[in-house]
Amino acid sequence: MNAMTTVPSYTPSLWVRLCHALPRLDLTMEMKDNVFVPDSWEYQQTLLVLSSLSAIALVISLLVVLSFLIHYCCCHRGDRSEGSEEEEEDEDASTGHGYSGKKGRGICCVTWVAVASVTLCCVAIGIGFYGNSEANDGMYQLTSSLLTANYTLASIDLLISDTVSGLQLSVSGPLTSMEELFTGSKPFLASTRNCRRLSENVINLLSSISMVRSSADAGLANDSVGGASITPLTPVPPSVAPTVVPAGGLMPSPFSPGWAANTLMVNEDYRWLSYVLLLLLDLIVCLFILLGLAKQARWLLILMTVLAWLALFLSWGSLGLETATVVALSDFCSDTNTFVVNSTHFNTGTSSDVLDYYLTCSRRMNSPFQQLLTQSQRALSNIHTHLSSLDRNALTQFPKAEKSLREVQQILNSTEGNFHQLVALLNCRGLNKDYIDSLKGLCYDGMEGLLYLSLYSFLSALAFTAILCSLPGAWRSFPSESEEYEDSDSESEDPFTSHQARRQTASGSQRGAMAPFYNYPGAGWTPPFSSAPPLPTLPAC
């Protein structure tokens, strides 16, 4: 943590600190350190133990669903005989679909539990889409920063190779011709040899500060030496810069940011697509469950139950992977400098002082290339002084040397321009900014996205557990085919005949009830108070 405090504009977030503080247990239930060492088997054991918590939760979910299935399949068989005796009484007081009393209340409760579970699943799906987008944004920022850093490193290598090849061209071509022309004049010959010696010194200095170049860069330098002139330096932008991918997919040595960016982009595309398909599967299951409950389609609910089982396993499985990833990422983000410096993949071919300079970029630290750059600058200045002296004094006596002298001056001007660009690129600010941007993308947006995806997996797993518990009771409440056939037969009778018969029966009963009052002797009479018939009771939910 002390090394991380020196990095400007980056501090581990609250979520990183909380996840990093989680206790770590190995398979023998012993406490372990939370230092990010992905190659260590002990560290991998702690991640496996944390992932196994989702497996335990899956077993609990299966037991809960199994207990509800046993309850619906076994315990309700004994209630059928009692329910058949109560059906005749319920039919007289029932309305609508013929449900009342305990049966109506049970159907209503089961249906509302299923609807609430589906609603919770839809909320989890929304959280999952947001988390997937956040994680993708973080990975995009990480890969963009890596590509920009790779572009900077490629520019440094190209500048060095271009400068070295130009100086080698001047040594092998114009300076050699000038030495042959100035053979009879010792002062001019001494100045020419001094230019040659200083050029070779600059070549050695720049070659020593070169970041580890690949064989392709070395071949480019050799081709430039064999050419007749220096081609202008035009580095390829990071969006189209080619990166050498090693055969077999192994990590190249030394580590290449461009290779890492391409690998992460490919993996991120597959991860993003996998989560989108999982979210769409959950959404389709939830929507068709609602449709099956509304249409009372048993076959649709049975099919969605099978898919809900699949979604339940996928939710708990993804939660286990997300838990391990979140914890490992929090360990990495809590102290990234230590891992980068100590890792053998990153440290191959580059000294720890150089890595520490670019990772921290502290004002108190001096550039490890400062002395070499100063010596190179002085050597180029001395070469320029000697060439100016030869231009003033030697051309009057040796006019044939003018062409060679002009070529050397042109090469020197191009070399000085490349050198100033090299000094600016070797400054730690550019690469350190890319490093900080990559950390922010991975440890801020990426971490937040993974936490939202973990919440989605947990909520969706709970929702599908409740759905699997409530769906058997829901489709048991649906009318069977025989009941639907009887209802259709009763509804297919002549509605006009039955309606006329009911009217006749009602009018006859009214006349029978009012007959005693019409036969009552007297001028005026008042019918006794009689209460209206009770209204039918509605099924309570």
Automatic annotation (TrEMBL):
The keyword Transferase does not apply. Keywords: Cell membrane, Chloride, Chloride channel, Disulfide bond, Glycoprotein, Ion channel, Ion transport, Membrane, Transmembrane, Transmembrane helix, Transport. It catalyses: L-glutamate(out) = L-glutamate(in); chloride(in) = chloride(out). One of its GO terms (cellular component) is chloride channel complex. One of its GO terms (molecular function) is intracellularly calcium-gated chloride channel activity. The keyword Cell membrane applies. The chain crosses the membrane at residues 47-70, 107-130, 272-293, 300-319, 450-471. It is a multi-pass membrane protein. It is found in: Cell membrane. Residues 495-510 have a biased composition (Polar residues). Residues 84-93, 481-494 have a biased composition (Acidic residues). Residues 81-102, 480-514 are annotated as: Disordered. It comes from the Eukaryota. It holds the Pfam family Tweety. Homotetramer; disulfide-linked. Homodimer. Belongs to the tweety family. Probable chloride channel. This is Protein tweety homolog. It comes from Gasterosteus aculeatus aculeatus. The lineage of its organism: Eukaryota, Metazoa, Chordata, Craniata, Vertebrata.
